[in-house]
Amino acid sequence: MHGLVNRAFQGFLCDTYGASLWEEVALAGDLPLQGFEALLSYDDAATERMMVLAAERLDKPRSALLEDFGIYLAGREGLRRLLRFGGADFVDFLYSLEELPGRVRLAVPDLILPEITLTHFAPGSFHVGFRDSHPCFAKVMCGVLQAMADDYGALAVIALHEDGQAVQVDLFETAYASGRDFLLTLPDGV
């Protein structure tokens, strides 16, 4: 697994639950106590141990923890900006998802996301598929998509598809609430 992913999950645990949880998970899982290096690659088994141990210690289903991780990621300003460049509203954003792996590669060339496909099969209903993805990817994307719907002010129900490799998006209203402000340029001082 790319170190950036592991480092982000470590940051999620520390920011959300405290550094003591990370220390407990790292010690129990024989993980680097000081944390993961963002530009290195790690064995998938280390990533798996980290997720399993965190879910156990929090007494939380792993799928819920991964969805929360997706919400956390979408709230990080750098990633939020990358995602918001996808469109002026949530529907535009959904249609831009197929371009997301390429945009991520521009920022981090060795971070390879799975191919993303969007199918619009009924008014307001979308199927977001992930080809050859890590089993956790769709769960994390559930959280990302929910956070982005909220960011845009859209009213949507987002759920993991029964196959675990796709997400179902049922969009009820694109302008349900006022979304978060977004400017193409960064504010002064940022």
Automatic annotation (TrEMBL):
Residue intervals of the Heme NO-binding domain: 2-152
Molecular function via GO: guanylate cyclase activity; heme binding
Gene3D superfamilies: H-NOX domain (3.90.1520.10)
Domain of life assignment: Bacteria
Pfam families: HNOB
GO biological process: cGMP-mediated signaling; response to oxygen levels
Matching SUPFAM superfamilies: Ligand-binding domain in the NO signalling and Golgi transport
Gene Ontology CC: guanylate cyclase complex, soluble
Record protein name field: Heme-NO-binding protein
